[in-house]
Please model this.
Amino acid sequence: MGKQKEKKNEWLDWLKALLIAFGLAFIVRTFLFAPIVVDGPSMLPTLHDRDQMIINKISYRFSDPERFDIVVFHASEQKDFIKRVIGLPGEQVAVRDNVLYINDEPVEEPFWTDQTEMYTDDFELEELPGGYETVPEGHVFVLGDNRSNSTDSRILGPIPMDQVVGKTSLRYWPFDRIDIINSGE
Model:
């Protein structure tokens, strides 16, 4: 009889441990961190199609986004996009002759290397969806690094912060490219 009771207790202990593990995994994934797979070429050369990254869901609960952060946001109910923050609330954003301007001042984009030959069609924020003069409060203006092949704020308009899932900088797959991608990289 004693051995059966010990076995039953052992199974209950295992069941409790598994339930706690699943509960913690659910909490971590729902509120703290989650994986995302890059889908498409819109963030080349920084991120490649099928790169796998971790989203930090809590970073913007304690701080505001910074220019050049890479963020994940809900583009629709079915699809999340990953793009780079370019414009912050209250800023006027434009690209003229392939140069980014924030409040009419040229801004260097340090993640574009000399070898990178990216091209951005000219635009002014006022010409884009919504016709905003500046990025509205509670929003960010995002662009893909591969500007010639990216659905971003030029099409979607400024992104409300309540649609931003979080910040991402840790690439964990493929193994040969594991790294932490800095905002200015």
Notes: The chain has a mean pLDDT of 85. Residues 44 and 146 are 5 Å apart (CA to CA). Residues 38-180 form a domain with the Umud Fragment, subunit A fold (CATH 2.10.109.10).
